[in-house]
Backbone:
């Protein structure tokens, strides 16, 4: 059983002695800090995020998406045809993102994550996973002022994400995850979403992972498990009935990432509750194909709580092993 | 008709930011910080008088954040290290660890002080129960409903104390209210507790959400006035309020508080005129989208100046005083 994370991680530490990215960004904004110095702080912060995950015992880590403000704008800035719009709520969180606005036909401009991956992997003894917005969620989180047709928008985004994924594969990234929370709110669009996901992962040799957080998966999970992907991550906290969906489906050779640690509340899970869930699932899926993770990115938590969750996750995973 | 106001917070002057940092490091006593908070409050009232605003606010110089401030003053909380809400903005998201209790009136002293400085009405400023719940971590109450209703009772006591202290306008902000439309009933029920038996004019500010999903149900929120943001998303939400007819008073956000750029008077006039295509002048108040604390003092002044001048000219054109 492996321990992993979903994506983002708190950017500022509760340890006041380490460089504070928030203060550095403010100083840079006021032209009191050079871009070079800011870059140093970014790098130190990413190294710290990696180190904390590795020391806590996480097996597959991320760079904490330290350079990202949100899930979509870091990509949208590198795609022709997007402008960055006004602030809007990110699902049902007190977290906001600037909505990308589609102004003209979208096309690939630059890689968004390849250099970020290279830097992170060079600073990590554990494999680094890259999480990207899935094409369907990317489209749903954007405002379309050009296509007037969801399918065309989703499929163009899929082609662009495919180029990103090919770039990551060339850089030897082994784990690529597409986050598709929006699919849960439009389960009738599963065909389109999965067709787009197939395009994103076409002909690449990576661990193809999907992650669904904040939402119910029962309606489309059977289709997802029949598609050509390798691992599926599910938030079991936001909707506890997702456990029944996991249990009632055929996982065949697929891996499950069990998001059973609440990444949106500081309260720590009781070990016995987690073991009960694992006990039920391991009757359906062999333990070597079950991974542990938080229910979503850890940046919803204050730093000290995120760290405690990491330790709890890997602690219970080790105990089971 | 077309009275001007603001949403609540004003930028903290540099000397106050410095003092708050010094206080948090234990370098200056509480009394010294308080003197500077009162000085900043005086400057804030003076600025609003100079600009000619109709309904004033005290500026929230004593508050770091609209939830944390109450958590610091009420029992049952632990304060976390900061979590990010968007861009480079963070707040210390409170953690509820015990039964909530208000040891004494929380906002009355600063309200009374600000009101003593002006003949114009000053608004009492509170955060609503649903938002307090949504923007806190919950380690104590069994569920969100229990926590929201516990907040409602305390906030009701605070509203009664503000009214007793002479507040003619009491604003109870619910920016989180569109987060989970399935919980709108809960938010309405909680507000019924908060405003029960109150004679002062009650207002609720809501922002950065999807108004589509809460309209017209939100008209059942038991307050006299809703204060909504419009400028940030270029008035794209305006059509939502055409049918059915908007039955409360409305405060329309006509300048974007998240942009450094100062709107021209003509732009603001256009915004006001757009709003008046949907709302009657008799029911309409004019203000910025949201609290001004993220702007510099100069930006805040310039934005409000453009706003007040625009309102003056629109009133002349309409032939009202």
Residues:
């Amino acid at each position: 059983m492996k321990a992993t994370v979903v994506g983002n991680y708190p950017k500022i530490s509760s340890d006041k002695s380490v460089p504070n990215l928030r203060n550095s960004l403010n100083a840079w904004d006021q032209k009191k800090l050079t871009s070079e110095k800011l870059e140093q702080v970014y790098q130190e912060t990413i190294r710290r995020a990696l180190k904390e995950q590795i020391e806590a015992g996480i097996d597959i880590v991320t760079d904490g998406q330290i350079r990202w403000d949100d899930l979509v704008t870091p990509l949208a800035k590198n795609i022709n045809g997007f402008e960055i719009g006004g602030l809007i709520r990110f699902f049902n969180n007190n977290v906001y993102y600037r909505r990308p606005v589609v102004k003209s036909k979208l096309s690939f401009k630059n890689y968004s994550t390849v250099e970020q991956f290279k830097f992170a992997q060079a600073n990590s003894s554990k494999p680094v996973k890259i999480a990207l917005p899935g094409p369907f969620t990317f489209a749903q989180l954007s405002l379309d002022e050009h296509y007037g047709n969801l399918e065309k928008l989703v499929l163009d985004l899929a082609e662009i994400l495919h180029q990103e994924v090919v770039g990551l594969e060339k850089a030897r990234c082994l784990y690529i995850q597409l986050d598709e929370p929006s699919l849960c709110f439009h389960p009738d669009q599963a065909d389109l979403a999965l067709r787009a996901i197939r395009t994103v992962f076409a002909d690449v040799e990576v661990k193809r992972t999907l992650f669904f957080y904040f939402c119910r998966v029962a309606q489309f999970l059977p289709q997802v498990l029949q598609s050509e992907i390798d691992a599926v991550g599910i938030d079991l906290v936001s909707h506890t009935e997702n456990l029944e969906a996991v249990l009632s489906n055929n996982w065949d050779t697929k891996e499950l990432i069990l998001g059973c640690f609440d990444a949106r509340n500081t309260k720590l899970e009781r070990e016995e509750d987690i073991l009960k869930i694992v006990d039920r699932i391991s009757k359906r899926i062999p333990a070597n194909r079950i991974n542990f993770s938080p229910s979503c990115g850890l940046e919803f938590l204050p730093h000290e709580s995120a760290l405690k969750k990491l330790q709890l996750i890997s602690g219970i995973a080790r105990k089971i092993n | 008709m077309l009275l001007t106001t603001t949403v609540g917070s004003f930028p903290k002057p540099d000397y106050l930011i410095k003092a708050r940092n010094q206080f948090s490091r234990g370098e200056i006593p509480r009394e010294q910080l308080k003197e500077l908070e009162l000085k900043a409050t005086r400057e804030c009232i003076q600025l609003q008088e100079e600009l000619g605003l109709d309904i004033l606010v005290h500026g929230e110089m004593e508050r770091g954040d609209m939830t944390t401030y109450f958590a610091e003053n009420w029992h049952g909380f632990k304060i976390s290290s900061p979590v990010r809400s968007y861009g480079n903005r963070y707040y210390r998201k409170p953690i509820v660890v015990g039964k909530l209790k208000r040891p004494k009136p929380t906002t009355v002293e600063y309200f009374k002080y600000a009101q003593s400085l002006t003949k114009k009405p000053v608004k009492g400023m509170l955060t609503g129960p649903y938002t307090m719940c949504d923007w806190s971590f919950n380690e104590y109450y069994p569920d969100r409903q229990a926590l929201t209703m516990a907040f409602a009772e305390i906030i009701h006591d605070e509203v009664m104390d503000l009214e007793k202290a002479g507040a003619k306008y009491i604003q109870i902000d619910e920016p989180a209210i569109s987060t989970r439309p399935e919980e709108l009933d809960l938010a309405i029920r909680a507000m019924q507790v908060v405003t029960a038996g109150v004679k002062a004019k009650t207002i609720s500010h809501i922002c950065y959400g999807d108004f589509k999903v809460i309209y017209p149900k939100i008209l059942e929120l038991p307050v006299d006035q809703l204060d909504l943001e419009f400028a940030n998303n270029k008035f794209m939400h305006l059509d939502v309020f055409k049918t059915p007819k908007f039955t409360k008073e409305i405060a329309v956000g006509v300048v974007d508080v998240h942009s450094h750029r100062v709107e021209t008077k003509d732009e603001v006039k256009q915004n006001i005129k757009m709003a008046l295509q949907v709302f009657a002048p008799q029911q309409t108040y004019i203000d910025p989208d949201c609290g001004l604390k993220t702007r510099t003092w100069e930006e805040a002044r310039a934005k409000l100046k453009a706003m007040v001048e625009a309102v003056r000219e629109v009133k002349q054109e309409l032939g009202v005083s």
